[in-house]
Amino acid sequence: MKFIAEINIMPLKEILDPQGKAVLLGLKHLQLSEIKDVRVGKHITLSLEASSQQEAKEKVEKACSELLANPIMESYSYTLQEINEKIIRR
Amino acid sequence: MKFIAEINIMPLKEILDPQGKAVLLGLKHLQLSEIKDVRVGKHITLSLEASSQQEAKEKVEKACSELLANPIMESYSYTLQEINEKIIRR
Predict the structure, then answer these.
(1) A64 Cα to chain B: minimum distance (Å)
(2) What average pLDDT does this structure show over A46-75?
(3) Which of A12, B4, B35, B48 sits at a 20 to 30 Å CA gap from B82?
């Protein structure tokens, strides 16, 4: 079975987000001052082979918790989609 | 009316993705070699005030096309959610 994972990794709410502040400044220069609370993180897509949905989930969890997300500063969420269209949300 | 936008900015498919390659290498060290086609982009969330859905969409389009995404190397997609739960996808 083949799966596609779409992963979002965001800075924890309480952590300062300098990238978000920089984007906010840029948006002001574009006269888009109605935009607030900008937060910038990573969006990662990947495909993987697994014998079951559960196994695919365990692999994505391992990838996120051991490599992709820094648990001290970031949180992660993902969707896992079997190629023949069954969407699984975490 | 208040809206929340979730924006994904990804490198164009034909563009080399060194970050994706680096992540792939890291995953191999975690014995996750079943994972392929890793692509790394940005996930940006923001809130904005607008008098209508259409106006909110125009502001997010302007933010994406003029600041957040580099049209030569990146593509963007977003969802726009009115705070009282109407989800609009692009």
Answers:
(1) 10
(2) 95
(3) A12
Residues of A whose CB is below 8 A from B22 = none
Question: Does A46 sit within 8 Å of B39, measured CB to CB?
Answer: yes
Judged on CB neighbours under 10 Å (0-12, 13-18, 19+), B64 is: buried
How many degrees, rounded to 5, is the angle at CA B23 between CA B19 and CA B29?
A: 150
Average pLDDT, whole number, for chain B?
91
ipTM associated with this complex: 0.87
Domains of chain B, residue spans: 2-89
Residues in chain B: 90
Over chain A, what is the mean pLDDT? 91
Nearest to A32 among B32, B40, B59 (CB): B59
Can you spell out the DSSP letters for A33-67?
TTEEEEEEEEEEEEEEE-SSHHHHHHHHHHHIIII
In CATH, what is the architecture of A2-89?
2-Layer Sandwich (3.30)
Residue contact B66–A37, C-beta within 8 A = no
Chains A & B: contacts with CB separation below 8 Å: 96
How confident is the model over B63-80, as pLDDT tens digits? 999 999 999 999 999 999
